[in-house]
Amino acid sequence: MSLSGVDEVIERSHQGCTVFVTGDPEPLKDAFSHRDDVTLANPWGPPVRGWKQAAETMDRAATNWHDGIAEGFDLVTKHESPDLAYTVEIERYRAKLGDSDEIVKVALRVTQVYRPEDGVWKIMHRHADHITSPRTAETLVKEAR
């Protein structure tokens, strides 16, 4: 059974993320649109727009990950139409972060939006953060200060 175009880009994304947590952003970058309207919001900084800024952000973010492995990609939901698709997933990793020599578990809540470009589906937006369980209003207030 062959994968749909959307399933192919999701698989490329998963493969790219698996390599990303070893410190190599290139396979994930290859799954992205390289157009000026691409957006990226990751746990390491503010959202960016445009391929140049997204690529630079991925390059910087990858330097925070070392010796990582992907433990799984838990699909929450997926929607696909002929010209747009999205997924919401929980991505689970084990990796060394920053200067630490300790391998830690990391779970990210991830929303990705995809579109076809010249017959190939690409990521046009990725938002990843560490919020994977319920939080109180007070925790949000503390972080905003």
Report what the structure shows.
With 145 residues, the chain is of the alpha+beta class. A six-stranded mixed sheet has the order 2-1-6-5-4-3. It has one domain: Nuclear Transport Factor 2, Chain: A (Roll). It starts with a helix and ends with a helix. The chain is built from four helices and six strands, in the order H-H-E-E-H-E-E-E-E-H. The mean pLDDT is 93. 29% of the residues lie in helices and 41% in strands.
User: How are the strands ordered across the major sheet?
Assistant: 2-1-6-5-4-3
CATH topology: Nuclear Transport Factor 2, Chain: A
The geometry reads as globular
Alpha-beta content class: alpha+beta
Number of helices: 4
- What's the domain count? 1
Low-confidence stretches: none
Strand content: 35-45%
What's the quick description here?
The protein has 4 helices and 6 strands; from the N terminus they run ααββαββββα. It is α+β, with helices and mostly antiparallel strands and 145 residues long.
Name the features.
29% helix, Nuclear Transport Factor 2, Chain: A, single chain, globular, 6-stranded mixed beta sheet
Q: Helices and strands in order, then pairings?
A:
Elements: H1 5-20, H2 26-31, E1 39-41, E2 48-49, H3 51-62, E3 65-80, E4 85-97, E5 103-117, E6 120-129, H4 137-144
Parallel strand pairs: 1-6
Antiparallel strand pairs: 1-2, 3-4, 4-5, 5-6
